Amino acid sequence: MEVLIGFIGSLIKIGILSSIYALLTLWTFKLIGKFRPNSWFERVSTNKRRLWSISGLIFSFGLLFYLFSYWGFHGFGDGPRIPIGHGLIVDNTNWTEYGYVEEIKTTDTIVVEMTKFIVVDDKLIGNLDSWFYDYKNSYFIYDMRTKKMLEFKTETEFNKYAKTNNLGSAYKLQTFRENYLSFWGGWRFWLLA
Predict the structure, then answer these.
(1) pLDDT tens digits, residue range 73-100?
(2) What 3-state DSSP class applies to 81?
């Protein structure tokens, strides 16, 4: 049910954004047509309803395509997700405090699950914390380019490595909700589906 509500909300948002973008396109074409008489822009902008409808339809399909792309799909309802690059996604279920990345396994061959993380210079940095799994290490740094994983037993060991490599510290790690709002908030929230 939450997925359906999230999908319908996204469709409504796409409709509103497409209408606004179509109106801006119409105004832009009219403005260019004023400064360039007898141009293509002036000819096209004479039929305002047709220009608005066609451009609105194009924007709708573009935003719908973006919504289901890797960089645009934020999850519906109870399945929020954050694309972090290199094809990796931090998933979450029911907005719990735990984020997980199915594609990355720890040295004890368990899926990475964390309560706090950040992405810095193509590196996923976080704590290893799960309500289900018992990890032998407490922190990790996963290089998304080289696909190499470093794990640390203690916060002190992690902070020492992070400081010498200009990666921040455990105090700068953020919760899933903070990362989600940081990534999907701002201009992405207002301008994209």
Answers:
(1) 999 878 899 999 999 999 999 889 999 9
(2) strand
* Distance of alpha carbon 27 from alpha carbon 174, whole angstroms: 42
The structure tokens listed for 133 are: 């799994």
Question: For 28-42, how does the pLDDT look when each residue is reduced to its tens digit (9 = 90+)?
Answer: 999 999 998 889 998
Determine contact, residues 82/7, Cβ cutoff 8 Å: no
Contacts 24+ apart (CB under 8 A), 96-103: 96/131, 97/175, 97/176, 97/177, 98/129, 98/130, 98/131, 98/176, 99/126, 99/176, 99/179
Amino acid making up residue 50: R
| Distance, CA of 121 to CA of 127 (rounded, Å) | 17
Return the DSSP state at 130. Answer: -
